[in-house]
Amino acid sequence: MISDDDFGVIPVPSRPGLHALHLVTVSAEETALLGLLLANLIKPGTVISLDGDLGAGKTVLARGIADGLGCQTPVASPTFTLLMEHPATGSGLPLYHFDVYRLKSGDDFLALGLDDYFYRDGVCIVEWGTLIEDVLPLETLKILIRLTAPQTPEQRVMTFFWPEHEQELALLERSWQDARPGV
């Protein structure tokens, strides 16, 4: 298991009992697979904040989550549209995929009325979520994606913080281990 010490300072929200889960992917396919596994653990109303450098894999992870939710439309980065809605088939969940990189604050997000999506029967993914952290729900699943080193450009460390959902994070860790036997 990876610890906080393995990657230096990790911004852990200051809440007692909150633990971080660190998982490593070594390819875009594994990043998408991790998103697919995560989708099995989320429920309607879940808000996910994704942060990481440009090209870290935020949209690839969102694509895997969308596949796991049963979304009908392909996922691409919503950078120039701010929000892309992805309806789901049958028993799936719709995905509301935001990219707030161009917003200056949470107030801009609120002024546009986009926080209404947090209370719908779908799942919200907010790329660059730390930019509007002050308006995200308290139980937001926060995922920090970091490239590990220039010599391994496909390898990423994903750090998960999910207040009140430590059981789900433990299930995600077990599912990840099961999906990668021998690794």
How would you briefly describe this protein structure?
The chain is an alpha/beta fold. It contains 4 helices and 7 strands, in the order E-H-E-H-E-E-H-E-E-E-H. The chain has a domain at 24-147: Rossmann fold (3-Layer(aba) Sandwich).
SSE topology:
Elements: E1 20-25, H1 28-39, E2 47-52, H2 58-69, E3 83-86, E4 95-99, H3 106-111, E5 123-127, E6 141-149, E7 152-161, H4 166-179
Parallel strand pairs: 2-5, 2-6, 4-5
Antiparallel strand pairs: 1-7, 3-4, 6-7
Helix pairs in contact: 1-2
Number of helices: 4
**What oligomeric assembly is this protein in?**
single chain
Unreliable residue runs: 1-16
CATH architecture of the domain at 24-147: 3-Layer(aba) Sandwich
| Structural classification | alpha/beta
Distance between the termini: 12 Å
Approximate helicity band:
10-25%
**SSE series:** EHEHEEHEEEH
Share in β-strands: 15-25%
Q: Write out the CATH superfamily name of the domain at 24-147.
A: P-loop containing nucleotide triphosphate hydrolases
Radius of gyration: 16 Å
Give the overall average pLDDT.
87
How many strands in all?
A: 7
* Widest sheet, order of strands: 1-7-6-2-5-4-3
